[in-house]
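User: Here's a chain of 125 residues. Predict its fold as tokens.
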Amino acid sequence: MYTVPMLFVEDVIATSKWYQDFLGARSGHGGDEFEMLLGDKGSILQLHKIDDDHHDHSVDVSDPRGHGVVVVVYVDSAEAAFAKANEMKVEILSPLAFNEIAHMHEFTARDPNGYSLMVCEADWA
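Assistant: Prediction complete.
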């Protein structure tokens, strides 16, 4: 079993490009209303246009986006992802550090739509 979060965004194409540039994700669908982003182990994230009215997902898409939810992404190198985030001038919510409790390096950033994204490197993942 696994989950694939769906984020409601203003601009699907721009957000898809941001995740591709930042994390190296690949487009699995493409389009301006819906996108499925792929990682090296399959689907990692779905993007859905926020004002697309032909789907009723019964979710509150009002601000703040993602309130109470953090999207967690495991990467091969948190240090490389942190350097890429700085290069792209991504808003950093918590800096790269080793989490003693979780036994992994991690940092938290904000995506262009206001969602919190925790980027982690774990030797057990």
